[in-house]
């Protein structure tokens, strides 16, 4: 990479701070180590956050305090935290229950389904995030929100987890279109707002697919509603896990005119059919 000017360094530092919420000092440190490559620096920041980052201080979270908070939110005669406790928790965390960041929290705490938190998942999750107080948890939730929108790998992990999380019955092989659209309605805007769903070019390299940042426009926020409309009109009884998982790559790689969709590739039929159906809606 050619030498980065002082003006460019200041611009990259400001962008890093605005995305991660880090201090200017930490931003400059990570950028310098990454030779001023923003995406590389951000990956390093999320994978190895600085000691001053909320929830990751040198002091280890106290398991007894974490357990006491669990008991605060669960009903006395129940083993797990339920819907009422979830509402109280969200109020204390200063976040709406429908906020997409709660999917990230559910992922971290291994919540088995909507509005349910097990003691084991709670203890392991908050210990991993190094939080044993509501103040620390609030800070961690803020960081998870930023990470969810800007870290592609993390977004994918939460996205993949959401399919099973969205099931309403044990053993379900698909989720209802209503549920799928509701969760897509939370996740897609979050990923498109930041870098998590940044448009990429995908090229086959042997058995692997190599992704590079695209210079062309891709999936737009308004296409979310067209996808929901298509599913409600022609989607059948539900959304399979295959369709859910592969839709992530479809959104990241499709061009804004849907002209480069490869029908010979191994896409689920629902995605192939949508790529044809949507063209008449955007022409």
Main sheet, how many strands, which sense, barrel? 2 strands, antiparallel
Helix content: 55-70%
Tell me the span between the first and last alpha carbons. 40 Å
- Mean pLDDT equals 91
Share of residues in strands: 5-15%
Order of helices and strands: HHHHHHHHHEHEEHEHHH
| Poorly predicted spans | none
Q: Helical stretch count? A: 14
Task: Give the neighbour order of strands across the main sheet.
Answer: 1-4
Rg: 21 Å
Q: Which word captures the global form?
A: flat
In total, the number of strands is 4
Explain this structure.
- The strands form two sheets. This protein has a two-stranded antiparallel sheet. Strands 2-3 form a two-stranded antiparallel sheet.
- Strand 2 and strand 3 form a beta hairpin.
- The chain is 57% helix and 6% strand.
- Helix 9 runs antiparallel to helix 10 and helix 9 runs antiparallel to helix 12.
- The model has no long low-confidence stretch (mean pLDDT 91).
- The chain is flat.
- With 283 residues, it is mostly helical.
Brief summary of the model shown:
The protein has 14 helices and four strands. The protein has 283 residues and is mostly helical. The longest helix is centred in the middle third of the chain and has 17 residues, at 134-150.
């Amino acid at each position: 990479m050619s030498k980065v000017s002082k003006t460019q360094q200041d611009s990259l530092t400001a962008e890093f701070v605005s995305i991660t919420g880090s201090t200017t000092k930490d931003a400059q440190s990570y950028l310098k180590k990454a030779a001023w490559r923003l995406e590389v620096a951000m990956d390093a920041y999320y994978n190895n956050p600085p000691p001053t980052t909320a929830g990751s201080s040198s002091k280890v979270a106290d398991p007894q305090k974490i357990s006491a908070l669990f008991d605060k939110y669960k009903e006395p005669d129940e083993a797990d935290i339920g819907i009422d406790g979830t509402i109280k928790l969200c109020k204390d965390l200063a976040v709406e229950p429908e906020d997409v960041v709660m999917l990230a929290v559910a992922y971290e705490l291994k919540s088995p389904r909507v509005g349910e938190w097990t003691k084991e998942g709670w203890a392991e999750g908050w210990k991993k995030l190094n939080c044993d107080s509501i103040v620390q948890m609030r800070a961690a939730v803020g960081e998870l929100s930023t990470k969810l929108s800007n870290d592609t790998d993390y977004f994918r992990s939460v996205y993949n987890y959401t399919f099973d999380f969205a099931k309403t019955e044990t053993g379900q092989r698909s989720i209802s279109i209503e549920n799928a659209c509701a969760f897509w309605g939370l996740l897609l805007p979050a990923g498109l707002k930041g870098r998590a769903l940044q448009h990429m070019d995908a090229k086959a390299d042997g058995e692997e697919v190599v992704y590079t940042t695209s210079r062309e426009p891709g999936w737009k926020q308004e296409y979310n509603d067209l996808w929901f409309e298509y599913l409600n009109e022609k989607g059948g009884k539900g959304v399979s896990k295959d369709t859910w998982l592969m839709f992530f790559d479809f959104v990241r790689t499709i061009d804004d005119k849907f002209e480069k969709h490869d029908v010979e590739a191994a896409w689920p039929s629902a995605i192939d059919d949508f790529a044809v159906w949507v063209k008449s809606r955007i022409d």
